[in-house]
């Protein structure tokens, strides 16, 4: 599949106006009509992983590879899977002195373009096409032959004065964007943004995983840092809870609307206070733990965070079900979050029960529960969200944030939970330039599903349009609205 | 979404003749042709939860809320999930003296109509539209603005002389309907019906869950009542089995064709007789049990019931996989069966093995196995039913008794089990007026699936029509035919 | 459904050129165009269960029943499930002296034809139609009425001189076919084939299940036979490993490209060498084992085989997740592999981790992982294959080797793993005459899925055609290419 560089003629690249709509005539007509009402609505991006620094410093980006390739673990993993290149060849820094990391961004870009056929049928391909055409005006298909031309073209756009994070927020039509910030964060960056008048547009999110995971190697350090940031010195389990409570309120006061929890499992069973105290004390002196102890403490702290949420009104996002860093050697060499995280089966009905029994009907509580395990859509998440007023089913996440995944999500969840017990789209991405593409795709899939309901005479057009607008704009805002 | 009452003009409500058919032209044409042959076939409703009293007394219904809203846990749960109303606001009786239960049916009806948008995309919405238009002749869309007009319109129809349970059986074209009756039932009502000539049309179903569940708080009382009803005084485990055997035969002689089993799990492992005896004896004196003991005894009794089924020929329905009353506070306040039952993952291959090894090839045995957990469709249920002559896969149940759920069921089960190892449609509902709507929807989905097979040249039209007729009429009758 | 023999007129049977394509106009047009490019490509059948003897001896087949009915467990199980006939009535040899086995092939054929309606909507029906029309030129639909005519027609074709295994390889356009051969095989047949110039066309596959399963009743015998075949006398665990290594190389030298592993679970955790030694020693003296010991030793040996694969380059096929011989009485009476094997839920993320951590990034290693449990498509297999260079997701297997199953496979796996981390089609069948039908159906489903991507503007037509050709021809060859 490797073409001779410079030899082949350019193959055109463009975006079809009907892309990702169902092909069937009446369904497509209905989808178009619904999409027409929602395509230009502002983007509500309540949860993602774009670094807050980008907005504080508003620094220009350097090159196509570091903007589009290296930070995107979806890209990394697919290229690595093809066997020709390893992570270092794609610019990921390695701890291995014998394994040089490629530092030439043009060379990295070439490797990505050469791998273009491997992305056929994937959402990554879909998003990238959208970005290349819509943001950068690229007009030819990526390949080894076209790589340099496209690289230069993108670089040229990136060199323009307006190509900066804040300006892009406007150009991308992003009304509000949430970042993700560790529990010990001083919030200095978010305060600076607030002073500059950007406090309503870039919001922090409280992510306390590191201070809830007993086998985190820097647990004690992170806990103490949280206490320092919160102004509550941590000397024991009780001051730890007090500091967390205070830090959550600092986040809320800095504009945060949500917390984010990436536990391995969804368990929310509280422990007896003495047990929790003892585990905490051992962790602060660097003791080691069984996996069961680690999971039990995390479950306990999820319950505690739910209790705190009823006080401070922060929306609780739960993202369980991923075995992180599946390949230890890759973790040791290249670090975390570079594509070797693999989902596992996950249970919610029993796991969430302690939390929902305690707070599920509390009007101050809101939890949004995400999954990569589609098996629970009809079986567990839709039935739970379809009765508990506090709970919403999160948008399909990670590997299933994709055309087929989103379609299956609507087909599976809607019949039991309706549209109004779902979260609205959440992009959850580190790839800043993919945000418009991701939201656009989600709108197209929702328009397609609503269009099918219209074409099958299961919903009237006026209702479908209203629902489309709600899913795109009103529901995500309301899902993440402060509760008290 | 709340409109000003009385202000908005009426939005029309009607039923499209092609509703719930696939939109694609050739598929829809084939579906129409198949549906034309099955739409007027009599309804075979072999298993449901309509109270037998309604037919014995043939009493008129009182008002729209108590007919259509309060008894339907699908409606309850969706309205509750929206956070504005709790169960008491919808007429569910509460044990909480501080929490008044709404008793004005018109007010309950308004709350339901106000919540109409929350039902978009759900089967409840689909069924209700069908009922409102087809049974009551309603011509405008429910909303807070139209609530009173619709209420009056329905009440007017309900006041007509013919709007009574027995007459509705005719108007609904229901040839036969099964009720569900506890193991200790005296069958007085069914006997009365038989004396009145209705014995072939309204059939009892033997449901022994309460006398097979050791932690049922009224276990001993229920067991003794079964003995009394059966005329077999129960003094120990052996007379308990004898009474159950006798009571099953009383049910069969009263027209029953099936038993119904709602265990948490599907396990059918028999216990050593001494173990079963000891557990039974402890339960009769009010001892408490571990969850494992409870499940083990239920599994044992499922096996015993299968053995009895080989003698008396009653068809065994197994409905596992639901964690009942997920929210304890709601259970304590409002009781059971009001929307807080949540499915769990469930295993069948190993669980059913003891029963199928013992009786699976026995020509006198028939079991119909239901699931809410779609994961087992291709993996476990279709392979089992596709080889054991005794077993059929039950129609998609509860949360997946829905357009998408039924479509996925046919797509998943047919390829391994065919059409002729499935049960035919089972409505399993408490909502009497929804029965025609539910059967009509099932016929439409089957017609759509068969139509797709025709349009994709995987089945000839004459075969599709015959299969449609079989699924609608012949197969449910034959699935529940007495076996000996 | 039973027609009067000889009375009914013949109902025509034919193959529609668009069969199994999506009905939607633009999708079907795209599918046709893609299919046009792939339909005549040679069949690559890298893994199946056709007996090697057929090719060595090139013996003619005897009759329609023993060619098409009795060896096909898909047919057996469906007919048995209908309750009228048991396995003996269909020609399966029984150990039960009181239960005569039908030996008249015409009578068996009649029973199969009578059961034709039970196959509606199944892949078996689809394959058989293809075989009847395309291989035998049958022109009427099977039924009890037409059974004898069709029987005579097929027998007539079978009597032709060219109707022999080797000639059929040409007529079926099979470029290469893999057989499955036990670990102790002498490879005499494959050597004969090689001497006759057929060595590149009919390849052995090394299947060591029997010598890795401690509770195999003939474990010691099979192990010793493997040593003898390999020329490495086995006296202990270490010579057992050495013999296996040597035998794998003998297979490779005889043309084998792969090994095949049918363990119950996917676990690949290695044991301490002393533990493995002790278990092996006990097995060689006929000791009995707990299920946990059996599974642990198998997991250990999967790991060992992966290590050997890195040396000899044989591709490792893993097929877990089936509970064999679910009904013991049927096993005792009729033996194995006659339709009573039932899938179970299966976990891969943790199970494959030891193997993938050790060898997953090794360029000499290739594993192809199959499943019948669709739940793992998006959750586990696609994420794993979408990052590990060594791993590919196997084609949907057994019960899900079907139109809907293959469609769901592409919809679920492609978005995370792409097309190029899948194995290409693997027929895995014992039914020789079904091979062209199975490959043709797979090509149609792939063309339909690719056609949908084109119709939804998610892929360009030139890319879809190239991908179709790759999936059909290049990818299966490359997936099974020797790695060192």
How does the SSE layout of this entry go?
Three copies of one chain form a homotrimer.
Chain A: H1 25-38, E1 43-45, H2 52-57, H3 64-69, H4 73-81, H5 105-114, H6 123-135, H7 147-158, H8 165-171, E2 174-178, E3 181-182, H9 188-195, E4 202-203, E5 206-207, H10 219-230, H11 237-253, E6 258-261, H12 273-284, H13 291-312, E7 315-318, E8 322-323, H14 328-334, E9 342-343, H15 353-359, E10 367-369, H16 376-385, E11 391-393, H17 403-417, H18 435-455, H19 461-479
Parallel strand pairs in A: 1-2, 2-4, 3-5, 6-7, 7-10, 10-11
Antiparallel strand pairs in A: 8-9
Helix pairs in contact in A: 1-18, 1-19, 6-18, 10-11, 11-13, 13-15, 16-17, 17-18, 18-19
Describe, in plain words, how this protein is organized in 3D:
- Three copies of one chain form a homotrimer.
- The first copy, chain A, has 484 residues and is α/β, with parallel strands linked by helices.
- Helices cover 47% and strands 7% of the residues of chain A.
- The first copy, chain A, is built from 19 helices and eleven strands.
- A four-stranded parallel beta sheet of chain A has the order 6-7-10-11.
- In chain A, strand 10, helix 16 and strand 11 form a beta-alpha-beta unit.
- In chain A, helix 1 crosses helix 18 and helix 1 packs across helix 19.
- The first copy, chain A, is globular, with a radius of gyration of 23 Å.
- Chains in contact: A-B, A-C, B-C.
- Chains B and C meet through helix 1, helix 15, helix 16, helix 17 and helix 18 of B and helix 4, helix 14, strand 9 and helix 17 of C.
């Amino acid at each position: 599949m490797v073409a001779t560089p410079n030899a082949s003629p350019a193959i055109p690249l463009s975006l079809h106006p009907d892309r990702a709509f169902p092909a069937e005539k009446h369904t497509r007509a209905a989808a178009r009509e619904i999409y027409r009402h929602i395509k230009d609505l502002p983007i509500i991006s309540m949860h993602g992983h774009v670094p807050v620094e980008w907005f504080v410093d508003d620094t220009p980006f350097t090159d196509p590879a570091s903007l589009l390739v290296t930070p995107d673990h979806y890209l990394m993993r697919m290229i690595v899977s093809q066997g020709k290149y390893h992570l270092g060849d794609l610019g990921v820094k390695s701890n291995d002195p014998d394994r040089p990391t490629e530092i030439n961004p043009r060379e990295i870009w070439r490797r990505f373009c050469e791998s273009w056929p491997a992305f056929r049928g994937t959402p990554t391909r879909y998003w990238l096409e959208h970005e290349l055409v819509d943001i950068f005006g690229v007009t030819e298909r990526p390949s080894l032959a076209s790589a340099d031309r496209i690289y230069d073209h993108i670089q040229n756009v990136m060199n323009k004065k307006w190509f900066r994070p804040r300006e892009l927020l406007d150009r991308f039509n992003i009304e509000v964007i949430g970042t993700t910030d560790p529990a010990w964060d001083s919030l200095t960056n978010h305060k600076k943004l607030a002073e500059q008048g950007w406090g309503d547009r870039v919001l922090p999110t409280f992510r306390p995983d590191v201070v809830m995971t007993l086998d985190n190697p820097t647990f004690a350090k992170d806990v103490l840092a949280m206490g320092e940031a919160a102004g509550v010195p941590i000397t024991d389990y009780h001051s730890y809870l007090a500091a967390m409570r205070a830090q959550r309120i600092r986040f809320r006061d800095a504009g945060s609307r949500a917390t984010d929890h990436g536990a391995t499992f969804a368990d929310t069973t509280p422990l007896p206070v003495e047990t929790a105290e003892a585990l905490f004390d051992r962790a602060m002196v660097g003791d080691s733990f069984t996996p069961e102890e680690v999971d039990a403490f995390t479950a306990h702290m999820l319950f505690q965070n739910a209790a705190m949420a009823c006080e401070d009104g922060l929306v609780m996002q739960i993202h369980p079900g991923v075995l992180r860093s599946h390949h230890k050697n890759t973790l040791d060499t290249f670090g975390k979050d570079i594509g070797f995280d693999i989902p596992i089966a996950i249970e919610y009905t029993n796991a969430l029960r302690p939390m929902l029994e305690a707070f599920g009907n509390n009007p101050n509580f809101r939890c949004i529960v995400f999954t990569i395990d589609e098996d629970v859509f009809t079986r567990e998440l839709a039935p739970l969200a379809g009765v508990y007023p506090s709970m919403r089913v999160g948008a399909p996440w990670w590997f299933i944030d994709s055309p087929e995944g989103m379609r299956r999500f609507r087909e599976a969840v809607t019949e039991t939970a309706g549209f109004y017990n779902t979260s609205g789209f959440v992009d959850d991405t580190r790839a800043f330039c993919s945000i418009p593409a991701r939201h656009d795709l989600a709108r197209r899939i929702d328009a397609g599903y609503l269009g099918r309901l219209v074409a099958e005479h299961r919903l009237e057009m006026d209702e479908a349009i209203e629902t489309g607008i709600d899913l795109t704009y009103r529901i995500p805002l309301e899902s993440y609205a402060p509760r008290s």
